[in-house]
Specification:
The chain has 723 residues and is α+β, with helices and mostly antiparallel strands. It has two domains: 2-117 and 188-271 and 570-719, Thrombin, subunit H, CATH 2.40.10; 283-344 and 374-555, no CATH class. The strands form four sheets. Strands 1-14-13-19-20-21-18-17 form an eight-stranded antiparallel sheet. Strands 2, 3, 4, 5, 6, 10, 11 and 12 form an eight-stranded antiparallel sheet that branches. Strands 7-9-8 form a three-stranded antiparallel sheet. The radius of gyration is 26 Å and the shape is globular.
Length: 723
């Protein structure tokens, strides 16, 4: 009995939502929580009220980050790193907004952030029965995946046709088990209003990323615009500021250690309900590959960035994303290994198997569960090296030219299909956005970086063992000297390709395949290579759909049997949908005799700069140093610290996508802006623990101090109701 109790406790420790602070609660679960018992003075209907106005009405999904309204005229507060794409795309050597920051002197001076849109949630409903109704007895695994996928797409398209200006998304809550349809208002005109200099917005750079203590002013301001009649519209000078149903005012009173806090946001993905097989695959296959490749590309692009400011500006956005992903992946890999999570979960599954075997009904229902999971992941491991090489080769995030060429090729196969049978990127609802992403990526094109990256991806693919080789690459790198063959191909391809021209990319993306082949396919080397790679890519995608068709019902069974074993319900893993999380302002101890207190200060910025002379990560803006030396704290000092707090720690359960989430105190006042986790908490995606899971936010007092004292942005402060 004691042994079973121990296993139950282990399960509870690795399952979201079962302790006081752990959990990313969906909207459907908020009304079930006793918030008052958790120290939150805001009632559930004040958080989310489908029949009235609530805090949720001020929360935004901003292109994969979270944001919130902070004025009645659509002013948006989010992280600097979330707005970085806008700042970088608007930066030039003449107007260096990365170096100098940006403050719109008047509403007419706000700059369009063309890669951004703001989604505001309107409604949600469970559609599990409708989605799963398309699964028929005897249906093959790939056919199952395709049927569910097509049903979801049809539901989304139907909503958007009936409600112009809305965005519909069906989210899989529990894999293969539950599905929820979310409807959003889609605001497509978003503009940059304020960004601090990068030396504030990214103070500490990659040295401090995923670390504590942190002194980063990771915040920026944008604004949502709509047509004069209030409807969502593309950018136009005649558009007007959006009037949100709810906005928040930043609190200059802030919080102290031990205070209760909560956040609303759009966490990306966690994997706490997946099996030991998934954890082992991440530890042994996926994460090592991501880290090694990411490190190689970072080293290349950092070296090229030293050649001139123009190149550095072009490569800055991709480097920011690469560094963030690599350091997170390194932290996750370390956590998986140090905590032996795969082995621990395997032990839990062995106890589950005993529980299954103890009952004839359970044995009939779940008896083959873990054996089938073993088989599915064994197949994935067999394909891993080839799939990784092929996916990287055609990815637009790795190579701009070859990535765009492949999207053109794929579009020529996908666009003739019925809309709901196409891949997501080529559906009518997404096609314009896909085109915009492809053409805008060319703004940051750097030929030395492009050449080196494509050559390395081709070299890696060419070095695959004979049984795993990719035919098109093998032919390209054939002969006695594969390196020389690849260099020869790239010399000709980079000189001849038309994929550097945004107008050509846009036109070819919409060109029927027969015409494309006759006009451009034979002449453009990258497009020719894309068509040659396509059959192998389609085989890989079919295998992925097949595996999803296998895994989804198995993971649904895993959740069901865990519920039976533990006698409790779970909340689903994070999946990019709106969630509530709560906790306390709280430090932690990452190692013996090391205590991390929960606030950093303005003084600490200056001290770090002095301790790291010549290190650009810690270059302190002169004006900030002068204000700190003069004791210009304004009304923003923490009473116990006698200084302006810069960043703070709390034990809320967050992950990627929570960047930009407003942090509220117990009374629902905005006291901070979430932007990161500590290094030890990168493992949060797989397991949460109150001893080390800490998230990091910018203190509202530093945001206000920066706008007031550093930037003298009185117009914005007045709009935000700050006197």
């Amino acid at each position: 009995m004691k042994h079973i109790f121990t296993i139950v406790i282990l399960f509870l420790g690795l399952t979201a939502g079962l302790t006081c602070e752990e959990g990313m609660f969906p909207l459907s679960e908020i009304h079930k929580l006793d918030l008052n018992a958790r120290g939150i003075e805001v009632a559930a209907p004040e958080l989310y009220n489908p029949s009235g106005v609530s805090l949720v009405d001020g929360i935004i999904n901003l292109g994969g980050c979270t944001a919130s309204f902070v004025s009645a005229d659509g002013l948006i507060l989010t992280n600097y790193h979330c707005a970085f794409g806008a700042v970088q795309s608007l930066t030039s050597t003449e107007n260096d907004y990365l170096r100098d920051g940006f403050t719109a002197a008047a509403p007419g001076a706000e700059l369009p952030a063309r890669r951004y849109s703001a989604w505001l949630i309107e409604s949600y409903r469970d559609v599990s029965r409708e989605v799963l109704a398309v699964v028929l007895p005897g249906m093959g695994h790939a056919a199952r995946s395709k049927a569910i996928e097509e049903k979801i797409k049809k539901m989304e398209v139907d909503v958007e046709k009936a409600r112009p200006g809305r965005r519909a998304e069906v989210a899989e809550m529990f894999r293969g088990k539950t599905y929820v349809l979310f409807v959003y208002t889609n605001i497509k005109d978003v503009r940059l209003v304020y960004a601090p200099p990068r030396a504030i917005g990214e103070f500490g750079g990659e040295t401090d990323n995923w670390a504590w203590p942190r002194h980063t002013g990771d915040f920026a301001l944008m604004r949502a615009y709509v047509a004069p009649d209030g409807s969502p519209a593309d950018y136009s000078p005649g558009n007007v500021p959006f009037r949100p149903r709810r906005h928040f005012q930043l609190s200059s009173a802030g919080v102290r250690e031990g205070d209760r806090v909560f956040a609303l946001g759009y966490p990306g993905s966690t994997h706490r309900h997946k099996s030991s097989h998934y954890l082992a695959y991440e530890e042994e296959v996926a994460l090592p590959y991501q880290i090694e490749l990411g490190r190689w590309i970072i080293e290349l692009k950092e070296r090229l960035s030293l050649e001139g400011r123009d190149t550095a500006i072009k490569l800055s956005a991709s480097l920011q994303g690469l560094w963030n992903n690599v350091k997170r992946s390194e932290g996750q890999l370390k956590g998986l290994r140090d905590l032996k999570l795969a082995a621990r979960r395997r032990g839990q599954e062995q106890e589950l198997q005993k529980f299954i075997q103890a009952d004839p009904l359970r044995r009939r229902k779940y008896g083959e569960l873990f054996a089938r999971l073993d088989a599915a992941y064994a197949e994935a491991r067999c394909r891993a090296r080839r799939d990784q090489a092929l996916a990287s080769l055609v990815s637009g995030r790795v190579s701009t030219l070859l990535g765009n060429a492949f999207r053109v090729c794929e579009a020529s196969y996908e666009r003739p299909k019925p809309d709901t049978q196409r891949e997501e990127a080529y559906m009518d609802r997404n096609f314009e956005r896909s085109e915009r992403q492809m053409t805008m990526a060319l703004r940051d094109y750097s030929e030395p970086a492009e050449r080196a990256v494509i050559r390395e991806m081709l070299r890696r693919a060419a070095s695959l063992p004979a049984g795993e080789s990719i035919a098109a690459v093998r032919a390209l790198a054939g002969g006695d000297d594969p390196g020389q063959a690849l260099d020869g191909f790239l010399d000709k391809a980079l000189a001849a390709t038309r994929m550097k021209d945004p107008a050509v990319v846009s036109a070819w993306l919409k060109t029927p395949q027969a015409e494309l082949r006759s006009r451009g396919y034979a002449d453009d080397p990258f497009l020719r290579l894309a068509f040659a790679l396509y059959p192998d890519y389609r085989e890989m995608k079919e295998a992925e759909k097949r595996q999803k068709g296998v895994l989804d019902p198995l993971l649904a069974q895993l959740v069901d049997v865990k519920k039976e074993f533990l006698g409790t319900d779970f909340i689903p893993d994070a999946n990019g949908t709106l969630r509530l999380t709560y906790g306390r302002v709280r430090g932690y101890s990452p190692a013996d005799a090391v205590e991390m207190t929960p606030f950093t200060t303005l003084k600490g910025i200056v001290e770090k700069g002095a301790a790291n002379p010549g290190n650009e990560d810690f270059a302190v803006p002169r004006r900030l140093a002068e204000l700190a030396a003069a004791g210009e704290l304004g009304a923003y000092a923490h009473p116990a610290l006698n200084d302006v707090p810069v960043a703070m720690l709390y034990d809320m359960d967050t992950t990627g996508g929570n960047s930009g989430s407003p942090v509220f105190n117990a009374r629902g006042e905005l006291v901070g802006l979430n932007f990161d986790r500590v290094y030890e908490a990168t493992i949060n995606d797989f397991a949460w623990d109150e001893s080390y899971s800490r998230s990091i936010g910018v203190d509202a007092r530093f945001i206000l101090w920066s706008l007031d004292k550093f930037s003298n942005a009185k117009r914005l402060l007045a709009e935000m109701g700050i006197r």
